Amino acid sequence: MRKGTSAALGLVIGFGLDRVVGDPRRWHPVAGFGSAAIALEKRTYADSRTAGVVHEAIAVGSVVALGALAARGGLVSTALATWTVLGGRSLAKTGHAMADRLESGDLAGARELLPSLCGRDPSVLGADGLARAALESIAENTSDATVAPLVWGALAGVPGLLGYRAINTLDAMIGYRNDRYENFGWAAARVDDVANLAPARLTGFLTATLAPLVGGTFAESLTAWRRDAGNHPSPNAGVVEASMAGALGVQLGGRTQYRHGVELRPVLGDGPPPQVADLRRAVRMSEAVQVAALGVAVAAQLASGAPFWRDARRRRG
């Protein structure tokens, strides 16, 4: 079997495992990486950007090196790595569970579930606020949890899959602007921004293309993206949230309550604030975008024949 075909099949099998099985319930490698990163931070931490760069290089570099060794396992390694780093099924499942609780009026249960999606303060949110928070998180995590890993898997095989997940996990751990991580977490946040530039824009394009599936149009989604995304503080979250808002015909952003305080986020899209029914539409859109992203990744893999890092090594040899 050609390497490109094997890698493409590995992506498909890994995607299927995520859809059928979901995240591993015990001994999840991402959780293991998080524990290792915490232990490493105890040795590398200092209130400086240089220390943060060293921390990022060691943590991510180690995972990429491990991925390069694991890649020798071919199809099996690619399938297992893909399954490990994807989180699409869990994202959709949580989105549906949030909608179920909101529809039944179980605000306490919805508030309890929200931290698994985002870092906002659920205690101050009503039903509409919870729906908006969940919807915005689903939009952003469609890119982070599925599209981006598939893009990096197509570009760089197993090292790309594992390396991206390490980058994204570190950003979630230390990429904050607070007293402890303002400097130390700078590298983690910037590297994550760069790693997500292409995936976020692919997510935005696929969202606009598939907008008719949820009653929207390509033009409305693209308009919201072009007009509003640049106002968002994140170069990537703005793209995926604005394109989702346009596709659904709702308005996202505005006053956003986090545990550390209130932020006034830019308005994204036109229309009314999202309702529970819009949250279910967002989940459907997320699942459609994930499948489309798999198709793009597989097509790219078949066209290239092999991850580019392997081709480059062959040319140097």
From TrEMBL:
PANTHER family: COBALAMIN BIOSYNTHESIS PROTEIN CBIB. It comes from Nocardia camponoti. It comes from the Bacteria. Converts cobyric acid to cobinamide by the addition of aminopropanol on the F carboxylic group. It is a multi-pass membrane protein. Transmembrane segments: none annotated. It is found in: Cell membrane. Belongs to the CobD/CbiB family. GO terms for molecular function: ABC-type vitamin B12 transporter activity; threonine-phosphate decarboxylase activity. Pathway: Cofactor biosynthesis; adenosylcobalamin biosynthesis. GO terms for cellular component: plasma membrane. This is Cobalamin biosynthesis protein CobD.
